[in-house]
Amino acid sequence: MPTNSDSSTPRGESWVWFTGLGLIVGLAMVVGLLSLVLVNGITVFWAPPVPVVKLDDGKGIIGQLAQRRIRPGTPANAPRYERQYQVGLRELNGNSYLWVDEAKINAEEFPTDVLGLERVENGPAFVRPITLKKSDGKVLAIADADFEAALQSEVASARLIREKLVEINRHQVGEVNADMESARIVLRRAVDLHQETKAVQQREVIAKLEARYAVLQAEGRKVSEGGAVATLAVQDAAGRSVTVPLTQVIRAWFPNRLDTPGRLQLFFSRLNEFIFDEPREANTEGGLMPAIFGTLVMTVFMSLMVTPFGVVTAIYLREYAQQGPLLRIVRISVNNLAGVPSIVFGVFGLGFFVYVLGGTIDQLFFADQLKYNNNSPVFGTGGMLWCSLTLALMTLPVVIVATEEALASVPRGMREASLATGASKWQTIRDILLPASAPGILTGVILAMARGAGEVAPLMLVGVVKLAPTLPLDGSAPFLHLDRKFMHLGFHVYDLGFQSPDSDAARPMVFATTLLLIVLVVCLNIGAIWIRNRLRARFKGASF
Amino acid sequence: MSQIMNPPSASRIKVRPSSEREGRKDYISIRDYGFWYGQKKALDAISLDIPERQVVAFIGPSGCGKSTLLRNLNRMNDLVDDVRHEGDITIGGRSIYDAGLEVISLRRRVGMVFQKSNPFPKSIFENVVYALRVVGVRDRSVLDEACETSLRKAALWDEVKDRLDDSALGLSGGQMQRLCIARAIANRPEILLMDEPCSALDPIATGKIEELIHELKDQFTIVIVTHSMQQAARVSDRTAFFYLGKQIEYDTTEKIFMNPSQAQTEAYISGRFG
Q: Global pTM?
């Protein structure tokens, strides 16, 4: 007999390496993706020094380096590089980004008077300031010692004015508009039904609202015009000068004067804006608060719907249904449901939930609304509820399969012990099986949440929009507005990356938004895992 | 060790006068009973009577059908797919297959202790009172009393009385098995079925359970399946020997072990086969 059992590498050992290789490739891809998103997402908020670039044709640009790449078409053995600078001043340049051939760059200087501006309109700007006309009329030149301090205090006071305007224009006027719309519907109904007194009442209500609207508008004008607005005169590298009213300026910083704490402060100030503010400039700037909130509310609501539904289904399949060929077919179908492309669920959601269910609800409960409000639907259009239901349907198989596995893995002894004491089947399920399989069920819910939170395609059909004026959950009754359309981080990524007019300007935001979406999903999962581990701890040491 | 010498609860259990122990001779009556798992016949023509408030041991080699018979006494085998039976089993004169008798109420009268201790992942208290909870008892004082009584009967009270709210899964193997006994007797069944209750326990814990069986037979009719012939000899009043699904011999324990009438029985108890 050959004695190859003595060999130091037993047969089959190489397959260990082969399987390990699979793991390494997988890990490398995950780590690569995450670090790409992390690095690109985080650096969006960092403010590097900004050079004044002298070109060999005598021209110059002021801009923040965005990226550097090999010029397309240059030979691989002697590559030529080109750099992309963010110069801003879209109103002058037409585009905020500029590609420059590296060979044409003569010099890069970092003068301390380069100023970065973030503006409400026309994007950012990198300029050299000339004079600041303060709101009290005094004029300061860039050479003056207190120029920077004066600029920052003017920016801060301009911010207060802007916030007051937003409060008036968006929130208060918005409320008045909403009230007016519902009052008009009531009026049209009253007129239609010849309820004269009611119609008169409604006309009074509308007149009052109109008066309030006029007051608000006047107030807004007073705020925007009242008091002289500080302005900043600046020029770009070519010497073209622009006057910027400071109410337009969100943030001003001297990128070449900042020390590290100053840069960190700017970093966190931008991060804070990104997470807690509302978007500006067709979503390419500002914050993502509505999208974060929409994603969160939708995911939680979806989990709340899919969990009981899936668990109940799994209990029937596992505990009550007659095991046989029919059940096997049902089970295979449920498993296959998990493989159906998500867009199919979107189409189904639109066809069934939105049009059939929503349309029926509108006809039954909102007939007045339809009749007196130009046939504008309430539930018969995309919204929070239909998005949650569509995703719940999509993630249902995950929960069903996980629950079935969890129920099946409850030790037989526990089940028998319960039945032997005279408990009924339902009591056994409720008191023994469900608590014991809760960790397994939650694992399914975690998977469902992870899949649901990152899903975009079906949502585009059933209720996610680019910009929603209101949040799905707010302070006005009934607080949770299931009929409202909402914003979603996943859709936001798609919209920024592929639908925005200035894709260069949107690129950093795509990474930042992606990072945020990942962080949000991870947070949701950590929350669910924490709950699961607490449950598991209760069953620790179960030795069956 | 001191606990074995001096069982903590023994003195507290009310011992009935022996005259009261005389119950019906055919309290559980098994007649021409056969049982199939699918096509496989597991029990064949079993006929035996189990007297009230006595301990009956089922012995026999693995696969002889003794556990199957035990599990049929409270119809636990109904949980298995594709089973059928012939003949009849009556308890107190009434067939357990009587259409008017719900299997749930049967199981409330016939408690069971399993081979592997299987406490629920709940507190010790909740484990003991589970049977009362399922019939809807909410009154805390009733539950407290039932818990204490059952744990005392199961000789576990002194060991766990200060930690009733702790998880039952923190108990030792022997304590868990006694907890399962306490759980089985909490709703005062008439019959207690024990399916090799000591097979996973060390000798000390086994000794405690056996002592317990002695105490409990004043109040319950006990049927025990065991692989240990010494245990059968120690705890039972009557013993049935099964082989390959057939009942070979059923008589008083003394007779079975001292003077068996069948050659197969003698061969088994003397260790020559099985």
A: 0.80
